[in-house]
Amino acid sequence: xxxxxxxxxxxxxxxxxxxxxxxxxxxxxxxxxxxxxxxxxxxxxxxxxxxxxxxxxxxxxxxxxxxxxxxxxxxxxxxxxxxxxxxxxxxxxxxxxxxxxxxxxxxxxxxxxxxxxxxxxxxxxxxxxxxxxxxxxxxxxxxxxxxxxxxxxxxxxxxxxxxxxxxxxx
Length: 170
Hints:
By secondary structure, the protein is an alpha+beta fold. Helices cover 40% and strands 23% of the residues. It has an 8-stranded mixed beta sheet with strand order 1-8-7-4-5-6-2-3, with helices on one face. Helix 2 runs parallel beside helix 5.
């Protein structure tokens, strides 16, 4: 019986630690210094101030699941536009060593969405995630209302469902 109680306590402790550090739903999009592909610097939070639903995907050029997720979003982008008025921002977390690859990647994939760079890697701390891909949906009021870590084929369907839900609420 002691072993079971110990295991339960350990599982509760781990679960508490995992969720304790996650920002609450409906929190405002924090300031994060980013730059666009032309080198113009601005705050990521500006996307939360424009009255439009925004999908934000944190990715890196070396991350295969990230590229699969962004490709899936790209493949569905036009169809999803019929269901909700939204935009997508792909935030590269490539550092100084790999930053030069971001612009050619974005051009090669011909993504119809904004691509920005978080070269300093502050997004991991501000959004409390470990590895990309990490995706958010920000509502029209600048609140983070959905979060997703990782990517498996089909996750884009879940993202789409949440996008529709959020669009119907606003």
